Amino acid sequence: MFDETTDISCTEQLNLVLRYVINNEFHEDFVTFLDAYQSIRQEDKSNSGESKLTGHALGHIVIDVLTKDFGIDLKLCFGIGTDGCSVMISQDCGAVTEILKQCTNAVRCPCYNHALNNSLAQSSKIVSVRNTIGTLKEIISFFNASAKRHLVLKNILGKTLTGLCQTRCIEMHDGILQFKSALPKIVEALTEVSMWSERISSSKASILLSAINNSEFINMYISYG
């Protein structure tokens, strides 16, 4: 099982997990983090030397790690687990397709939890829900985008606000509940910022206060959780 994403240090991390059977018992172990761009084969770079994380490149990275670093016989691999993005599962140029050329006995094992999270994140067609989530994200971004505004919120609330994860429904739920419990303090912080002489911050804070005081937002706030 593998996935790649950009971490907070702007490094394109590829993580690899092995699931295997010993004495009829299943084991699942994380084995490595890789800087994906540092691990790209020379043949997967463009003529100009540009590195691109295509499906072919990711597939080759995984193959190289399994064979060269861990000495695994790829014919003994029976499953490949990834998320459902096109760079992973494309029939023509996906990473899984590239790996299957070497792992001839393997089949793709999709991550159903990832599919569920994406479905839930995109499933709501209710305008008021989308508007409320959008307001929450705007408020969180407003405080996190400025050290000065962030300090005001931290002094009043006693902690910082975490973002609303778009692809993990449990973390999204926890983030909304955190926001709900902290709303009075958030209103207090926005009110303080709205009184600043600094025009951009004060104007934005006033707009966000109006959004929070909107009846649609209040109804969603009361009904959630």
From TrEMBL:
Q: Which PANTHER family match?
A: 52 KDA REPRESSOR OF THE INHIBITOR OF THE PROTEIN KINASE-LIKE PROTEIN-RELATED (PTHR46289), DUF4371 DOMAIN-CONTAINING PROTEIN (PTHR46289:SF14)
Identify this protein by name: Uncharacterized protein
